[in-house]
Amino acid sequence: MKVKVVAIGNRLMGDDGIALKVAEDIREVLEFQGINVIVGETDIYYCFNEILDADIIFILDASYYGKRPGTITVKSIEDFKIFENKQFSQHGINLIKLIEMNNLHKEIYIIGIEIHEITYSLNISNSLNKKLKDICWQVQKVVLGNYMI
C-alpha cells in the first residue's frame, strides 16, 4: 500500500503557500513512516503524475470555508462531487477534476488549512505562523492517525 501527501499552493501568495510549508516541516516524520511527500506547488500535472499509482492520497491545500484561520478540514474526494462547478480553489478543483476525468477510484482525501489572508507575500500571515506547529501536528495526526504503515 502506498500513501502519498501532495501539497499544492503558491509561495508567492502568502497563506496560499501554507500547505507547502506544512509539508516541508513534516516531511521527515512522514517519510520515516514510508509516506511519500510531494511538494507540487502549482504544477497540477506534476502532482497528478505522481499520484497515479498510489493507493491513499492526501491533498494538502489552503482553504477558505469561513472558519478560524489555522483550522484543519478533512474531506473525502467524494464530498467535492456535490459541489460540482461550485468550487473556489484555484488548485484543488483542477487536480480533483483531473483525477475524476481519468476515473481514478482511489482513496483520496483533501486536507484544507484555513487561511487568514491571501496577499502578495513570500511569508505566511502572522496568524498562521503563530499556529504553524499546531497545524503541522494536526495534519501529521490526520495522515498518520489512521494510516500508519
Quick description:
With 149 residues, the protein is α/β, with parallel strands linked by helices. It contains 5 helices and 5 strands; from the N terminus they run E-H-E-H-E-E-H-H-E-H.
Q: In the CATH scheme, what's the topology name?
A: Rossmann fold
Measured by DSSP, the beta-strand proportion falls in 15-25%
- Average pLDDT confidence is 84
Q: What is the CATH architecture descriptor?
A: 3-Layer(aba) Sandwich
Specify the overall morphology: globular
User: If strands are numbered along the chain, what order do they take across the biggest sheet?
Assistant: 2-1-3-5-4
Order of helices and strands: EHEHEEHHEH
CATH level-4 homologous superfamily? HybD-like
- The low-confidence parts are none
The total of beta strands comes to 5
- CATH C-level: Alpha Beta
Number of helices: 5
User: How does the major sheet shape up?
Assistant: 5 strands, mixed
Radius of gyration: 14 Å
Task: Write up this protein.
The chain has helices spanning 18-32, 44-51, 77-80, 92-101, 126-145; strands spanning 3-8, 36-41, 56-63, 72-76, 107-114. With 149 residues, it is of the alpha/beta class. β1 (3-8), α1 and β2 (36-41) form a beta-alpha-beta unit. It is globular. It has one domain (3-145): 3-Layer(aba) Sandwich (Rossmann fold), CATH 3.40.50.
